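Onboarding guide, step 5: your first structure request.
Type a short instruction followed by the sequence, for example:

Predict the 3D structure of this protein.
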Amino acid sequence: MSEPTSSHPDDRPMVRLDDFLKREGLVGTGGEAKVLIQSGAVMLNGEVDTRRRKQLHDGDVVTFEGEDYVVDIQSLGDPPM
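The system replies with structure tokens like these:
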């Protein structure tokens, strides 16, 4: 039996979409991130994605309020407490 293949290996660094918005300073709270994501105000790689816990990887592009933000995990601010 062959091993399943994936384009996103489990060992790659990741950040959740709601955390990305907070760590980039685009929203003040997780609740605000949740509302914006679920309302369709955030795009991921050119498509609306309403999953707030969607895992992002380096190179993904988040679009919010007409601005593009390229995910670079190492350059993000401190994780939310």
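Each response can be followed by summary notes, for example: The mean pLDDT is 88.
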